[in-house]
Specification:
Blueprint: H1 10-27, H2 30-43, E1 51-54, H3 79-97, E2 107-111, E3 114-115, E4 125-128, E5 136-139, E6 158-159, H4 161-175, E7 180-184, E8 195-196, H5 198-206, H6 208-217, H7 219-242, E9 252-253, E10 256-257, E11 279-282, H8 292-298, H9 300-307, E12 312-315, H10 325-328, E13 334-339, H11 345-352, E14 357-360, H12 374-391, E15 395-399, H13 409-424
Parallel strand pairs: 1-15, 2-7, 8-11, 11-12, 12-13, 13-14, 14-15
Antiparallel strand pairs: 3-6, 4-5, 9-10
Helix pairs in contact: 1-3, 6-7, 7-9, 11-12, 12-13
Length: 425
Amino acid sequence: MPTTSLGLPAADVAVVRELAARVAGLAALPVQRETVRLWEKLNGLEPERPMAMIDEIPWHELAGDVPGGDELVTRTTHPFARQLETRFLRELYRWNHMRVDMVVEPVVDVAKVINRPGWGLKVAEATIDQGGVVQSHHYEDQLANPEDVEKIRVMEPSLDVEATAEREAWAHECLDGILEVRMQGLSGWNGDDLTFALWDDIETFRGTEPILLDFMDRPEHLHAIAERMTEVRIAELKILEAKGLLGYGMPRIHCTGAQTTELPKEGFDPARPRAIDNWTVGRSQLFVSVGDATFDEFVPSYYARWYQHFGLGYFGCCDPLHNRIDSVRKIPNVRKVSISAWAKIARAAESIGPEYVYSRKPNPAMVAMDAWVPAIAEKDFVDVLEATRANGCPVEFTLKDISTCRIDPRRLWDWCAIADRMVRA
């Protein structure tokens, strides 16, 4: 098999470049700039209309002998070329079938190879239902005693210079003259790399039950753990920043459009991005099981210390926050608040008003039922739009966490068509 000077199969490079050219053609369309402008308006709390996206898609169910499945067939063999090919195929597929308010950019972000040793502890767990798409986990309690808190410590992150240079060279060979290559450190563009999920992380080191018991029996022990973990995370962030290992210019934040005129901040250097040039994400899903007073005691004070380093922030995930907005207000720089499928729609809108983007996450179970009922999706839009309109809320919709669509991609296509119609109406 003929290879290039860098060792990539020549046939793979040809496949990637052909797909990249198609993506570049989409990126050049005037509609991309208009959609970016609309996201900027929404994220600036001056929306012209609601926005909508779909993400965290069950791609394993969309390829093969299903409608549109032939559009996702891969041909490359080299792992790096396969990554680019898969990315481009999915981007083209989304544009063809699930576009809504997606933006196709003329840039390809390639992740630098960054070694992050963690925070002194390795997760000790047992997984249940092996082989399933979604698994259950049982975690061992490694922080049961006060002296265990010292196990949490700063571990020095570092750049793998050689591996990063190799990836960069491969990217240029595949994309030069078609799409811009941008080597990226950690930021929300590649998942949620700058997430502060303090209590989710602690939960992986302890399990759920010990924490819930300690809320009642040993709150001081939980505060000691949270204090230590917060200190370590901020120390790691400062190291990453000092070493130029942060990224910038993220197109998405927690599966929503991240385009904004407010970032990066004054003094920005693309060779050494800062936390303040980025969005961050925070979540504390464990607290769905406790009262509002406990949430207020254990969440805002720690999260505020993390968020103060960033330009903008998204807060929340699957946990219902409709009755906790007053606590969220204690966290600086929050711009978007997650309103999950378990939140009370009207109560959330009344609490948020025009202060934050009301980031609605419809229940993905609607596309996983025995029968697809479009009216269920439409009703969710109607209910949310009525409540947010009445309270002046900037609003966005993101269908995410989709573990299955019952091997029927048309359900996802239909949801996107409904979303497109509703947000433009």
